[in-house]
Amino acid sequence: MAPKPQVLSNVELIVLETILEMESISGYDLNRLIEERQIRDWAEIGTTSIYLALKKLEKKEFVSWVLDKKKTGKGPPSRKFSITDKGKKILSDEILYSLSKTGERDKRFDIAFYGIGFLPRVVVVLAIEKRIEYLVLKFENIENISNLKINQGLPLHKKSIIDHRMVLISNEIEYLNRLLEQLRNREIEI
Fold first, then answer.
1. Do the domain assignments include residue 4?
2. What does the DSSP 8-state code read for residue 62?
3. How much is the pLDDT for 85?
4. Is there a single domain that holds both residue 81 and residue 154?
5. Beta-carbon count within 10 A of 168 CB
6. In principle, which of 90, 107, 112, 176 could form an S-S bond with 98, CB 3.0–4.6 Å?
7. Are residues 89 and 56 in the same domain?
8. Tell me, what's the pLDDT at 150?
9. What CATH number corresponds to the domain at position 77?
10. Domain residues for 29?
11. Is the pLDDT reported for residue 151 higher than 70?
12. How wide is the angle at C-alpha 60 spanned by C-alphas 31 and 102, nearest 5°?
């Protein structure tokens, strides 16, 4: 069965991945963990967006929460969030879709890649193989456009955009092929 298209925002995806990893976590600790791991730097996730994502995920029934009765100190007890079975299913679908179908230079791929540890190795390998196929087709399409006569007289700065995309795509294909080899040979753990 093919993964469904994007249902979760980038913030919701990273929040679900992190909740699943930690099993149970408060919004405050989730926010702190995202900060410590410097996820904000590459995923563009703000503090407020994490709390908004938690509300949306709860409304969609992808997470549930319980009050942390062990909390000491000032303030009310915090909510400890955990992922539901429905949340695990959508997370798996979203990671697979984003690994195999996102365009080049898409942060969504990085965010999905962050969560591959939740999937079986064989599924990750298949998703990366699909991504390579996608990128090869994309590269060929861009190369065909580059070779059109109408593009021959373009100024350097306009030709450079085409060249830049081709370089990025070819580098990603090269990287993904190395990663596939490591995954197949079990040189790396996921």
1. no
2. S
3. 96
4. no
5. 14
6. 112
7. yes
8. 62
9. 1.10.10.10
10. 10-113
11. no
12. 70
What's the rounded Cα separation, in Å, for the pair 188 and 190? 7
Determine contact, residues 14/107, Cβ cutoff 8 Å: no
5 is a domain residue: no
If you average pLDDT over residues 6-30, what whole number do you get? 91
Q: Can you read off the two tokens belonging to residue 149? A: 């006569």
Joined together, the tokens standing for residue 172 give: 């990603």
Residue type, 169: I
Report H helices in 60-155.
Answer: 85-101, 107-113, 121-147, 149-152
Residue 70 tokens read as 């062990």
pTM: 0.78
- Residue 60 has which token pair? 């969609």
Tokens 């370089």 belong to residue: 167
Burial of 157 (0-12, 13-18, 19+ CB in 10 A): exposed
The CA-atom distances, in angstroms, between 122 and each of 69, 88, 118 are 40, 18, 12
Q: How far apart are CA 23 and CA 67, in angstroms?
A: 15
If asked whether residues 104 and 133 sit together in one domain, one would say: no
Same structural domain, 40 and 102:
yes
- Which H or E element spans position 26? strand 25-26
CA end-to-end distance (rounded Å), the chain: 23
Cα separation, 40 vs 34, in Å, equals 7
Q: Is 174 exposed, middle or buried (0-12, 13-18, 19+ CB in 10 A)?
A: exposed
